[in-house]
Specification:
Elements: E1 16-21, E2 27-32, E3 36-41, E4 47-52, E5 65-70, E6 76-81, E7 86-90, E8 95-100, E9 107-112, E10 118-123, E11 127-132, E12 138-143, E13 152-157, E14 163-168, E15 173-177, E16 182-186, E17 193-198, E18 204-209, E19 214-218, E20 223-225, E21 237-242, E22 248-253, E23 257-262, E24 268-273, E25 281-284, E26 291-294
Antiparallel strand pairs: 1-2, 2-3, 3-4, 5-6, 6-7, 7-8, 9-10, 10-11, 11-12, 13-14, 14-15, 15-16, 17-18, 18-19, 19-20, 21-22, 22-23, 23-24, 25-26
Length: about 300
C-alpha cells in the first residue's frame, strides 16, 4: 500500500482522464484534459514522452484525450479524443499513423481486439464502431440504444476475441458478437455504467457504475454474483478491474479513493487514499505489484 510516485500536471486545472500500463509493466501512458498523452517510466516516475494530439478541424480547441491503450507489443498507443476520432500512435516516431473517422461526438473508450486486427470504439453519440487496423476502414457501426440522450461509456473485447461488451448511460451492458449482432443485455444497474473488465477466462464480466455498485456477471447463465459489500461512499464508480491473479477487484471512485476487494467474499481488503478529487481511472500493472490511478 506504499505510494511510489506522485506525478502532477504543470497545468493546475488539468484532469487526467485515463491511464494504461505497457505490456511489460515498465511504462504508463496517461491521457489528459490538455490534449496530451504523457508516457512515464514506472520505477523512476520520470516523464519520457509528451505527445500532443492535435484537433485538425478546430486547432484552437483543446482535444481532450479520453482513452488511451497500449498495443500488445508496447510499440503503439491507441487513443480516443473529444474530436470524435480514434488514433494509432507510433511510440518510436511519436507520429500518428492512422486516424479513424466515424463518430459524431467524443470518443470515451477504445480497445484492441486480442489479435489486434481490429479496433473498437464507443462514443457519446451512442455508437459502437469496429475498425480494420490495417486499412483504417469502418467494418461496422452499431447504434447501442435508440433512447435520446443516452451515450456509450466503455468497450472491452472478451479475451478470446469472440465478443464485445459495451456499457451505456441507459444502465445496460450489451454483449455483441464480432459481426455486431446483439447477443445479451445485462440490466441490474440503476444508473449509468462507466467501466467494464473481462475476467481472464472470459466467463465473467466486471462492471462499475454511477449507482455506486461493482457487479460481477456470470455470462453463460446471464446471472450476477450478488454482493452489496463492494461500494464506495454513495458516489460514482469510475473504473473497475480484475487483478492479474484473478483473486482481487480494484475500483476507483468520485470519493477520491481506490478500493481493493476480495473477489470471492466481497470483503474490503485495502483503501488507497491520496487524491484530492475524483479518481477517474485505476488499474493493476501486468504483474499485479503496482496500481496506477489518475485524477
Amino acid at each position: 500500500g506504499r505510494l511510489l510516485h506522485t506525478i502532477e500536471s504543470e497545468y493546475i486545472s488539468d484532469t487526467f482522464f485515463s491511464s494504461s500500463f505497457s505490456p511489460n509493466g515498465s511504462l504508463i501512458a496517461v491521457g489528459a484534459e490538455n490534449g496530451e498523452i504523457r508516457v512515464f517510466e514506472v520505477n523512476s516516475g520520470k516523464e519520457l514522452t509528451v505527445i500532443k494530439i492535435p484537433n485538425e478541424e478546430n486547432p484552437d480547441v483543446v482535444n481532450y484525450v479520453r482513452s488511451v491503450v497500449f498495443s500488445a507489443d508496447g510499440s503503439h498507443l491507441l487513443s480516443g479524443s473529444v474530436d470524435g476520432k480514434v488514433r494509432i500512435i507510433n511510440l518510436k516516431t511519436l507520429k500518428v499513423e492512422k486516424i479513424f473517422f466515424g463518430h459524431d461526438d467524443q470518443v470515451v473508450s477504445v480497445a484492441y481486439s486480442p489479435d489486434e486486427k481490429r479496433v473498437a470504439s464507443v462514443s457519446w453519440d451512442n455508437k459502437l464502431c469496429i475498425w480494420d487496423v490495417f486499412t483504417g476502414s469502418l467494418i461496422k457501426e452499431i447504434v447501442i440504444s435508440n433512447v435520446a440522450g443516452d451515450g456509450c461509456s466503455a468497450v472491452v473485447y472478451r479475451p478470446d476475441g469472440s465478443n464485445i461488451a459495451v456499457a451505456s448511460s441507459d444502465h445496460t451492458i450489451t454483449i455483441l458478437d464480432n459481426d455486431g449482432n446483439k447477443k445479451q443485455t445485462l440490466t441490474r444497474h440503476i444508473d449509468g455504467i462507466n467501466s467494464l473488465c473481462y475476467y481472464s477466462n472470459g466467463k465473467f464480466l466486471l462492471s462499475g457504475a454511477a449507482d455506486n455498485t461493482v457487479r460481477i456477471w456470470e455470462l453463460e447463465n446471464c446471472q450476477e454474483w450478488d454482493n452489496n459489500k463492494r461500494r464506495h461512499s454513495h458516489v460514482t464508480i469510475s473504473k473497475v478491474s480484475f487483478s492479474p491473479d484473478g483473486e482481487k477487484i480494484l475500483s476507483s471512485s468520485h470519493d477520491a479513493t481506490i478500493k481493493l476487494w476480495n473477489i470471492r467474499t466481497g470483503d474490503l481488503m485495502k483503501v488507497f487514499e491520496g487524491h484530492d478529487s475524483w479518481v477517474r481511472s485505476a488499474s493493476f500493472s501486468p504483474n499485479g505489484k503496482y496500481i496506477a490511478s489518475v485524477s
